[in-house]
Fold this sequence. Notes:
By secondary structure, the chain is α+β, with helices and mostly antiparallel strands. Helices cover 40% and strands 24% of the residues. The chain folds into three domains: 21-92, Dna Ligase, domain 1 (2-Layer Sandwich), CATH 3.30.1490; 98-221, 2-Layer Sandwich (D-amino Acid Aminotransferase, Chain A, domain 1), CATH 3.30.470; 229-378, Succinyl-CoA synthetase domains (Rossmann fold). The longest helix is centred in the middle third of the chain and has 20 residues, at 162-181. The chain is built from 13 helices and 18 strands. Strands 7, 8, 9, 10, 11 and 12 form a six-stranded antiparallel beta sheet that branches. It has helices spanning 5-14, 28-38, 65-76, 125-131, 148-159, 162-181, 220-223, 231-239, 257-269, 286-299, 316-329, 345-354, 363-378; strands spanning 22-25, 42-46, 59-62, 79-80, 83-84, 88-92, 98-107, 112-118, 136-140, 184-194, 200-202, 206-209, 242-245, 250-254, 276-279, 304-311, 336-342, 359-360. The relative contact order is 0.09. It binds guanosine-5'-diphosphate and manganese (II) ion. Guanosine-5'-diphosphate is lined by residues 43, 45, 51-54, 59, 93-94, 96, 99, 122-123, 190-191, 203-204. Residues 43, 45, 51-54, 59, 93-94, 96, 99, 122-123, 190-191, 203-204 line the site of guanosine-5'-diphosphate.
Amino acid sequence: MNLQEYQAKELFARFGLPVLPGQVASTPEEAQDVARALGGTVVIKAQVLVGGRGKAGGVQLARTPDEALVKAREILGLTIKGLPVRKVLVAQAAEIARELYLSIVLDRSRKLPLIMLSAEGGVDIEEVARTTPEKIVRHPIPLDGLRGYQARELFQPLLRDGKLVAQAADILLKLWRTYQEGDCQLAEINPLAVTPDGRVLALDAKVILDDNADFRHREWATWRDPEDESPGSRLARDKGLSYVKLEGDIGCVVNGAGLAMATMDLIKHYGGEPANFLDIGGSSNPEKVTAALRIITSESKARAIFFNIFGGITRCDDVANGIVQSLAESPLAVPLVIRLTGTNEDVARKILSEHGLSATTSMDEGVRTVIEKAQEVMV
Ligand code: GDP
Ligand code: MN
C-alpha cells in the first residue's frame, strides 16, 4: 500500500523524524482554517499518489490564510497524471538552503535494504538518476543493521558541517527504524532539506508499506482509502484473491500462486502477454470464480481469458459450476479457454459440456489456444 504524504508524515513523526506540523484538508475553507491555526507561511500540497507534484503546480506556498484559500482552491481543481486532487496537506513552510535525497528501499537483487543518498535532491532526482547515476550513493544495509558511525560516514562528504552531519545521521537511523519496524518497502525523503539556520528537515515523505505485514499493523486499515484503490483490487481483497494487474491481453484465472506464475511463464514462452496475475486460492468457492471474471473483464485489456485449474483441494466441479454460474449472470465478450485436471474433473467436464463449454487437460495446449484466440480477436 502506498501512503499519501500526510499519512507517511504521521508515520515519520511517530518514529521521531523531523516533519513540520500540518494537517490535511478537503476544501479550500478547511485549508484556510489550517493555515490560520498554523500561522506564518504555509505550503499547500496536493495529496495524490504520484511523484512530480511540484512540477505540476501541486505544491505552492501561501503567506496568508487568504492566499491559502486561493491556492488550495487552485490545487484542489487539478488533475495530476490522471489523478484528481481530492485532498491537500497544509503544512508549515520551511526556508530551504539545500535539498538532498534520502531513501531506504528493498533491493530484491541484493536481498537487502538499500540506502540511497544524493546531494542533488529535490524535484529533479529522476533526472539525476538517469543522466548522472554516480551522484546517487548506494549503501546496502547489512543483516546486523546500521550503526551510528556508518550513518555519519555516509553524510560526512555531502554535508561536511558536524552539526548537520549529526542531524542527518540521526534522521537516517530513524528512517531505518521506520522502515524496519514500520514494515516498509520504501521510505523516502525528498527533499531532505537543510534550512538557512542549520536544521535538517523531512519536507516530503513517500512510503510504500509491505502488504504482507498487514496482519501486524491494525492502524494500516485506517490509512487505506478505498478511492485510492482500483475497483478490481478492492474486490480482490474483499474476496481473498491475490491479484496483480498487468499490461498484456490474456486474462488468467488460476488456483495456486505457483501455478499462476508457471502459467504466466508459459504464456510468455509462447509469445503472449498476461493481462494479470490472479490466484483464486486453494478453496473453490464459485463466488471467487465470479469475482475473478468480474475483475478481469472490468479492468484489463484482456482479449481472451484462460482458466488454469489443477484440482487438488480445489474441486474442478466447483470451478466449473462457478464458470457456468458467472457466465449465466454476465456473458463474456471475449473467448474463454479452460484447462482443468485433477479432483472431480469428469464431473466438471460434464457440467461444462451441458453448457456448451469444453476444457483441455493440457496446460501447454490451453496456453497455445488462448494466445491464438486472443490474436483472432485483434484482427
Ligand atoms: P513532489 O514534487 O511531488 O516530490 O513534491 P515535494 O513535496 O517534494 O515538493 C516539491 C518541491 O517544492 C520541493 O522540492 C521544494 O523545492 C518545494 N517545497 C516543498 N515544501 C516546501 C517548503 O516547506 N518550503 C519551500 N520553500 N519549498 C518547499
Ligand atoms: Mn518530493
